[in-house]
TrEMBL record:
CDD domains: ABC_MalK_N. One of its GO terms (biological process) is carbohydrate transport. Residues 4-235 form the ABC transporter domain. GO terms for cellular component: ATP-binding cassette (ABC) transporter complex, substrate-binding subunit-containing. The lineage of its organism: Bacteria, Bacillati, Actinomycetota, Actinomycetes, Streptosporangiales. The keyword Translocase applies. SMART domains: AAA. This is Multiple sugar transport system ATP-binding protein. Keywords: ATP-binding, Cell membrane, Membrane, Nucleotide-binding, Sugar transport, Translocase, Transport. InterPro entries: AAA+_ATPase, ABC_transporter-like_ATP-bd, ABC_transporter-like_CS, ABC_transpr_MalK-like, ABC_transpr_MalK/UgpC-like, Mo/tungstate-bd_C_term_dom, NA-bd_OB-fold, OB_MalK-like.
Amino acid sequence: MAEIELDHVSKKFADGTVAVEDFHVSIADGEFVILVGPSGCGKSTTLNMIAGLEDISGGELRIDGVRMNDKAPRDRDIAMVFQSYALYPHMTVRENIAFPLKLAKLDKKVIDEKVEHAAGLLDLTPYLDRKPGALSGGQRQRVAMGRAIVRSPKAFLMDEPLSNLDAKLRVQMRTSISRLQKNLGTTTVYVTHDQTEAMTLGDRIVLMRAGLIQQIGPPQELYDHPRNLFVAGFIGSPAMNLLPAEVTGDCLRTAIGDIPLRGRLRRAFEGRDPKEVPKEVIVGIRPEAFEDASLVHDREGGGSFTGTVDLLESMGPEKLAYFTLDTGGVRSRHLEDVATDEAGGGAQLVAQLDPKSQARRGQPLRLWFDCEAIHLFDPESGENLT
Ligand code: ATP
């Protein structure tokens, strides 16, 4: 097992592309860390630098306190699982899993025991004598995992290992990977572009954008306290609603009405020079912070507005109601990246309602929202002010 430290690590490719900048994180022994972010943000490059498949341009990589920058991949005692599985088609499952142990020239009896054990952990025992061509996608993925765990490496690195599987299998495999990682207690770094995978799998998330870390923390922390608009828009599905607002003395003027500047919303501006209080902000409200007003009784500290439901999706335990609002007003370059808001046009809002809601498509609906659940963002820097 291992502690992995990336100490201000960067990667600049020969053509000048800076793929990773000042990546600084310390991964504890046994921790499960997820690298997540949109395509091209530098996730795979970071993982490849840990594995030794890419050179490190700046900073230091340490495993258990030992500098690894110049160590060959095979000397790092790390196992990697790829999206493509990278199995040998002419070998059986048993031979595929045994392969790293054969390379290490272990005794045949020991190899057999280790392979049987790994196959047992991954429910692969009935398939040991089949070749990969005769397995389902999920089974192939488990063989790739088997080959990684069989030699008890110091750490696992996984690059989008579930993206070739269908949605249902992905959910199943997510649970198995999570359970397996906890049972083995092996330090794991897992790359995905899927925020749901990131939210459900890891102890901590490292959210990246364009080579830079945006926020590091446990999934719930990123959800509850996104550091900026990008994190707010990336984490959570459906995404956080983002609305432009004008700051006018005691309230925020928005397309869903005036929101009084009280409590924590007021504190967001406290202690600032009045000249520095932004005239415009972006208001962020999670879909579940909206409720059907007819189901809310005697609740203080909230606001309400009426919108017309454009679309309704019944999801079983919840109902998603979509609204279009005429907004105008504040433009933010950050909004263009994260929201469905088309510059100057109407913003689409989504509310995650109780299934008891009588919301109907094409009908007006009064919605209630809790002012305590509101986030405020600076439209210039994107920073969360609350
Ligand atoms: P994806 O989710 O699409 O796999 P990613 O977040 O893993 O994306 P990387 O593959 O790490 O992103 O790529 C980061 C950036 O580095 C991208 O802009 C990519 O085009 C660039 N890049 C990757 N490999 C090279 C290379 N060999 N030479 C130059 N640029 C590269």
